[in-house]
Amino acid sequence: MKTFIKAIPFLLFLVGCVAQGEFIRTDPTIYTPKPKSYDMPLLLGKSEKAFKEIGRVTVTKQATTTDEQISESELIPLLKTKGQEIGADALVDLKFETFTKAAVFSARVKHALKASATAIVYVDSLTHR
Question: Could you tell me if 56 and 24 are in contact, meaning their C-beta atoms sit under 8 angstroms apart?
Fold first, then answer.
């Protein structure tokens, strides 16, 4: 039991290190995942090509210490990977949100960052699937 109690702070540290991602589907169609080599386009606004929205991808990462800051560049690869997994052709309407969370067993707060984007498939690629 003492060993387990000593391991609790370490386990809580690991939980804080992990980025969390989710996909909220708005289209019932299941698309074939893209290969890891696919260079997922990421646009701040909308695409000029005709597209269909398939859902919203969100990734959140919390700092591991109260002094650490998470940068936007840390979340972009995670968003792109999630986009590949769900079969998106691109991610558009990229948004970032900074917030703080209370640190475990401390009065201090930790920095956290959330990135979200709309996952799309291009209409012209739908006819070739």
Answer: yes
